[in-house]
Specification:
This protein has 437 residues and is mainly α. It contains 21 helices and no strands.
Length: 437
């Protein structure tokens, strides 16, 4: 067999192993090792594995992963997410479907200090859903809004997916963070427009009663300012320091983690047991991410050795499909994979294949990364995988709430995400104008 044939067979073997239940990282290592053995020799495979382990994990930039993860977990434990929602609830409670819009805005702000979609889904499932149901919204709509807006956590910087993409694509993490701001705002606006549209055209989908606005005691500006102060301070520390040139991404993560720790200590929401639990969880998440990155790096080198990416580039770019046909097929495949496996795994499997083709097509890899992240995040809202949906179900612990009900509530936001992808494809400057400054 030719090296290209072995490359294709390795992809097929990888899919089979994932389907039968083997962990994705191990599947990628096994298929890559065996494929290199057939392409070259077993000694080359052993040496390449050792070199990949050294090269992929010695990157100083990867220190940002545990720091941003720890910051997100500390922010969640400190109750900042609850305060974020309360601020927007008080500001928007008189707007039609205002609590839904408040949830979107609060999730957007929360995303700017965590970068983890699942953290947003967990926090706002417990905070926003009961409040929305009490104010006369259906559980289907309330949980759908939380699930939909939680995806902002991976788009608005800082974002774990953007960090992984930047390293794989050899792009600047700072530029990737800047590229997420415009699309993140567009997606948040699309979600708000979806909520208003549903409230006006499908009131039975949104409201469980005729009472849309529940009167509450007026809140002083000073109270709102006190609640918003920790949020604003943390965002200013992390993003202001990063974009102001005071921190590199790793230093920004360290400053953010320290700031979140200070907030949690001052609020007395952190004891020794809770802090140890957060540290262990941070370690578990970090190790799983870095192991996947190691496996993906080996997989990428194996594919490059086989010559398959070059063959794919010639097929897509010289054939009748063309660059835009490749882009549409790529987005569609990401969405389909999102039905089955998690976001980081999809990215690490697909990027070694897609990045050479995208580069040969002349696509801006920053713009390509934004489209990649949005398309992958659709999988958080679609069955059967739907990680955000299952996270909300677990966080609420309500036996009467069915998973299918949450999926139906989240479906309008899937449409909004597809619409946002179309807008960013049509107007690339939304993603690229800030990184070019």
């Amino acid at each position: 067999m030719s090296p290209i044939d072995i490359g294709w067979l390795s992809i097929g073997a990888l899919i089979v192993l994932i389907v039968v239940g083997m962990p994705i990282g191990i599947s990628m290592l096994v298929t890559s090792f065996v494929s290199v053995m057939f392409i070259r020799s077993d000694m080359v495979a052993v040496r390449m594995l050792g070199q990949v382990a050294n090269d992929s994990l010695e990157e100083y930039l990867y220190a940002v992963v545990p720091l941003f993860v720890l910051m997100g977990l500390l922010v969640t434990a400190s109750g900042v997410g609850r305060d974020t929602f309360d601020v927007f609830q008080r500001l928007l409670h008189r707007v039609t479907a205002g609590l839904g819009i408040a949830t979107v805005f609060a999730n957007a702000v929360f995303a700017a200090i965590t970068g983890i979609s699942i953290a947003s889904a967990t926090v706002f499932a417990r905070v926003a859903v009961p409040e929305m149901v009490r104010h006369g919204y259906t559980r289907k709509f309330a949980t759908g809004v939380v699930a939909g807006s939680s995806v902002l956590g991976m788009l608005i910087p800082p974002s774990l997916l953007f960090i992984v993409y930047a390293v794989q694509a050899e792009e600047s993490v700072g530029r990737m963070f800047l590229a997420g701001i415009g699309p993140g705002i567009v997606l948040a606006i699309a979600f708000c427009a979806t909520i208003i549209f549903l409230a006006r055209t499908q009131p039975k989908f949104v409201f469980d009663s005729e009472q849309e606005i529940v009167e509450q005691e007026p809140t002083s500006a000073w109270t709102i300012l006190q609640m918003a102060a920790p949020i604003v301070a943390l965002i200013t520390l992390v993003l202001g320091g990063l974009y102001g040139g005071f921190f590199n991404p790793t230093e920004a993560g360290a400053a953010g983690a320290f700031g979140a720790l200070v907030i949690a200590v001052l609020r007395r929401s952190l004891n020794r047991r809770t802090f140890w639990k957060l540290l262990v969880e941070t370690g578990q998440i970090t190790v799983s991410v870095l192991f996947l990155i190691l496996a993906a790096s080996f997989f990428s080198r194996m594919l490059a050795l086989s010559g398959m990416p070059r063959s794919l580039a010639e097929f897509f770019l010289d054939g009748p499909i063309g660059p835009w046909g490749f882009l549409l097929a790529y987005v569609g495949l990401l969405i389909i994979l999102g039905f089955l496996i998690d976001s980081i795994s999809i990215m690490l499997i697909m990027l070694p294949i897609a990045l050479p083709v995208a580069g040969a097509a002349g696509f801006d890899l920053i713009w390509f990364g934004v489209i990649t992240v949005i398309a992958i995040e659709i999988g958080l809202l679609t069955p059967p995988f739907g990680l955000s949906v299952y996270t909300i179900k677990a966080a609420l612990s309500d036996p009467q709430l069915k998973v299918g009900e949450i999926f139906r509530g989240a479906f309008p936001f899937v449409i909004a995400m597809l619409f946002t992808i179309a807008i960013i494809i049509a107007f690339p400057l939304i993603a690229t104008w800030l990184p070019r400054l």
